[in-house]
Amino acid sequence: MSITIPAGGFDVVIVGSGISGSIIAYQLGKAGKQVLILEGGPPVPKSREDYMQTFFTANAKTPESPYPPTMQGTGSASNPLGQPDPATLNTPRYTVLQINAWQNPAQCYFVYPPQTATRADDPEMTFAFGSSYERVAGGTTWHWLGTSLNHLPNDFQLKTKYGQGVDWPGGAQFYQSLLPYYRKATETIGVSSDKQPMVDLYKTFDVQPDGNYGPNYDFPMPGITPSLNDVLYEDKVTSLKIDNIGLFVTPTPQGRNSQPGKRRQCAGNTNCIPICPIQAKYDGTVTLAEALQTGNVQIQYKTVANNIRLSGDQVSGIDYLTYDSQTGPSTGKGTAVGKRYVLAAHAIETPKLLLMSNGNPGYPNGVANRSDQVGRNLMDHVMYLAWGLSKDPIYAFRGPLSTSGIESVRDGAFRTQRAAYRIEIGNEGWNWATNDPYTTLADFVFGQNNTQLNGDSVNQQGQSLRFDPSLPAFSQLYGSKLVATLNNVYIRQLRLGYLIEQLPDPDNRVQLSSQYKDHLGLPRPQVTYRIRENYVRNGFVSAKAASTEIFQALGATEYTQVPATPVLSGTSPSPTTFQYLGDTFTFYGAGHIIGTYRMGDSATTSVLNARQQSWDHSNLYMVGSGVFPTTATANPTLTIAALALQAADNILADLG
Amino acid sequence: MVDYMEYFIRLSVGLTGFTRAAIAPRIDPVDIKTVYLQVFRDKLPNGMADQIICEYYNLNQAEGGQDGNNEAIAGALLSGTYPAEVLALRQLIYLWYMGAWPTVVSDNSPTRGQTFSEVISATSYTQGLVWRVMQSHPMGSSNYTYGYWATTPPPLQDYLENPA
Ligand SMILES: Cc1cc2nc3c(=O)[nH]c(=O)nc-3n(C[C@H](O)[C@H](O)[C@H](O)COP(=O)(O)OP(=O)(O)OC[C@H]3O[C@@H](n4cnc5c(N)ncnc54)[C@H](O)[C@@H]3O)c2cc1C
Ligand code: SF4
Q: Which one of A49, A198, A604, A607 is separated from A546 by 20 to 30 angstroms, measured CA to CA?
């Protein structure tokens, strides 16, 4: 498609068409401003069936599996999954499959420094980052789960209240300023939730009903029906406390339709990650389409921003490279010019773009980087997973992947000592935990024991884990016995996920690799990632103990696997396993890439002011979870959306 | 002449524990059994697939040729002495359940090895019996309607036949 430069030029140039870029584009387009989006990835396919087919035929059904560029090639001994070399791709991205190849730049897009720690309990140990993202029109919400919770007031004043991390600019007041935008964000996404459970939950954090979304608010749609699984937890966990806080189950506000509306009603395809087949779940393409419909927004696909130009202290243009096919040559280049600029390329590609833009006089360390904070403070919600088998069937693998959580433990006096977390209740059995249904099936057909169901495994409470004590270890089943065994296992599978907050660590950072490039010749991200603070590690200790108590209260048997002792040297060191206080933990990514261009109160310690405007260049804004000073305790995207709506108002105010 | 498809069906019924109505429904527009017989033949060396089907046929004939005692005959084949054949039968079970062809890496580790697999096609993925044995639907392809997840599914027996 060709771009028509409007008579007065573009008001705003946006890099990235995910939820954050699309929200800005829609708000500005609606207000009559002329907007150009540079999108590095291909357009939204005419039919989502294209992505569905890629998903169905993918051998590893990871979050990225439906989307280009493909991750699946011909396997070989040194590359069993046939992962493409990122040097051959124009828009490579980090994927979950790359985590195990983290020290191999021929398979892994991120470049990691070699492991220097020699002990697995050394806080200096480095890890593979756990979370991934997409580089296609619409962005990473193609494969998000849809959980749409607010942060809590205390999340914004972690330093003041608990002496940890940093505050958000203005501290607790930040929450107040965000409230009207939170409300609008639930409308943008189309969040389904009943109001009463939210009122009940927020009361426990001293937030009055009106302080949740404002007076007279209700969600766009009623709450999503909880699963049979949720009901079991609801009945049993109220007998428990963690650090003196009573547990209870809260239905999750979700970005999926509980009623037919502009999008279809959720039919429970149990596939929100990696892809909702019927778009019952919100994704960034919804807002992108709305933005384009204003008639004031244009988008240029397969257009990778690669340099930001400055004229004095103002951004004067964004350079880009174009391509036709993923492995083909670059087909052109240009410079997009506007009055204001917005970076919305998410928390890895945005800092990378800023750092690559290092040719401007006065800014040798990159654009917007006088503070030297660009790329630093990379965070995620690091996840602890626990899984088990219930006594009675709860019929896993049905419904949205998660419909409830235990939220009451997201804040409390314990935060002087350990990280907070929310507990997500999974409806997808051991799909995430053990890659089921594949692994249980293979165990019982081929006589293996990767699930601990079919051998001599014992859990940490000393319970024997062999599912059917009347069978010998490593049984190989068939026929009706196979049917009965598989059925009895699958319909009882439970999974809990703890989203543990992480603190900003300036040495956890994205830099430019000096050696490795993508196919356009652009440097790849070099990532250093540690979990140094005992505060965060204590969160794992708490999560582990809590899971055992919860499964006991449920009358369930815990199957959480104790990870093998981490390997630190050699060609394939452990990517995500560490030791702490005598225990071995594996962490998982939550998909929440946070913190690499944070907001703050001071130009010396942050990249952006509270308006999400660069301290160094007043016509440059950045949006997305990279602006968050801390991870806080909710999944980020509702807050990303609220902040993008706020940034759009700020830009409109600037433009006058 | 052995009717290979007929005895492939009987063998598959015996191995999987599902009924004939599920493996080879009378009205069968998807016809996944034909795909799987082809995969079974292609993946195994030297006509081993047809050899197995013939063995099944012979055992069945020895018992009178009725379509009925499939599970017992499958069991007899699985306790055979030729390891490559026994593995092939187990791979066929996996194929029916998962719509993917497995590569089994056995070792003496505490888990006894690992299994990798290759999806045959989008249709084979959604046709996997594994989704039925869990009284559900393929992840990413549901014929149910909103809220079904709050109620108990129909009994397992319905899924072993052909609920559609
Ligand atoms: C498995 C998974 C589950 C998740 N579940 C949840 C959840 O339940 N709740 C929640 O709140 N969050 C969830 N998230 C997080 C959520 O997906 C992200 O927070 C969100 O998508 C970020 O939106 P964004 O617009 O900032 O970035 P993105 O959606 O990543 O968009 C960035 C855009 O920039 C483009 N781009 C990148 N580089 C360039 C360049 N150089 N030039 C031009 N364009 C470029 C990309 O192609 C893309 O379109 C999940 C994430 C994952 C991975
Ligand atoms: S459960 Fe299915 S239909 Fe509902 S949102 Fe998830 S993928 Fe879409």
A: A198
